[in-house]
Fold this sequence. Notes:
The structure is a single chain. The chain is of the alpha/beta class. It has helices at residues 8-15, 47-50, 55-61, 79-88, 92-95, 122-125, 131-137, 154-160, 174-183, 195-203, 208-227, 257-260, 282-292, 302-307, 343-346, 357-360; strands at 3-4, 33-39, 67-72, 101-103, 110-112, 142-147, 164-168, 187-193, 232-237, 243-244, 250-252, 263-269, 272-277, 297-301, 325-329, 334-336, 350-351, 361-368. The strands form five sheets. An eight-stranded mixed beta sheet has the order 1-3-18-9-2-8-6-7, with helices on both faces. The mean pLDDT is 97. This is Alkaline phosphatase family protein. Pfam families: Phosphodiest. It comes from Mycolicibacillus parakoreensis.
Amino acid sequence: MPGSICDILPSAAALLGAPEATDRLGLPAPARRVVVLLVDGMGTHLLPAMHADAPTLAAVSSGKLGELRELECTFPSTTPTSLVSLGTGVSPGRHGVLGFTLNIPGTERVLIHIFWHDDPPPQHWQPLPTWFHRFNTAGIPARAVLPQLFVDSGLTAAAYGGARFRGVPPDADYAIDLLAEIHAGPGLIYGYTNVLDSAAHAHGIGSPAWLAAAAHVDALLARLLDGLPADTLLLVTADHGGLNVPAHARIDLDADPDLAAGIAVVAGEPRVRYLHTRPGAQADVQAAWAEKLAGRAQVFSRGAAIDAGLFGPVRDEFAARIGDVVAVATGETAILASAHEPPQITDMVGFHGARTDAEMAIPLILLGG
């Protein structure tokens, strides 16, 4: 079985000498600095398509540079869930960020995690301490170099709370800021780039824009390698992979009365739908979705999804955040919700969120050290 995104920070903490931390990944020692760079959307299955435009990554894949391993992200294979799983080291059922969007129980509100600030309060929505906090408690500096836009967000607090943040303006050279923080001293340094995932959503995997983003990521890696101190281990990973969904494989639940019937709140995302049903409608909604999406999605009740272990063990107080009915796309299906979501979702080309290898498998690249 591959390791998990949940194993990365505990392993880095053990390498840097944090008490009660276990190196689950068997990282090479010694190191005074561990740099974790997360490339949003760079699933393992996408690496071959990047090689022509990414010579550094091509050298890694061919065994000429560093070491390439494979991990899994947590489910759903979506950025908010994965980032909080990375930061806390636990599965979504324990930290509560169970999807891209979630219904706030007791309301008809849907929380979009990437636009979240302080409502609900991050420390209540995600109450667990992060590994960044644990690093600092152990006397090991933990820093995060993030795009300035993300520094004060609720998702940043939930995933990276306890880190010392360095915000990078949009017109700045991210590599310079990240290298400056790396050279500032020992400890953990975390970096993040979303250029690849943004290009996948807007233009599609394999598009010219996506290949340009791959080249951008590769250039960042090359510059980091050129500037790494000798006592530094660089770990490059991702939060999920992805796939393109053609027009014929898309279903709009809001354009189908049979699928829309009985639903009060729609959450999740196109590859994983959380359906919160009207009183007494759960069984009918589940039956209608199972019939309509036969061969295109797995359809669960909330209890069955939890019992199947999709989210890991689920704390009682988080269960209601999961839909009464959960639809997990298989193959290349996307389940749109045009009346419930911004048009940018409908216009996307690349998607992720479900349980396929293309979405769940992520790399762990070991460099330097």
